[in-house]
Amino acid sequence: MIQNYTETLAKDPFFDESDSENFPKGAYKPDFEFRKIRFFMPELQGASRRGRFMYVVHQASCSVYPVWVYTHEEYPKRPSDQDLKEQLTIIEMNIVESPPS
Question: Where do the structural domains in the chain lie, given as residue ranges?
Fold first, then answer.
């Protein structure tokens, strides 16, 4: 399923099933768009029945980078700001070191 979303996002990073997501506190970068897709997981119950796929779009290169996949069973709200900031920092460092061609 994630592979299907990744392929879709490569063509349209802002497709209809995705929503804008708030950056973790202190992690906002103007050249990135933080997004989230919610998808159905029938084997789970309640709010946990929806998986979440967080990703960022680097606007200058129109590149999509996965950040986190989770359910509310794993995280009642979302992964911690610290965990998300670490992932976003890694992504940003990789773009600076080797920009997509």
Answer: 2-97
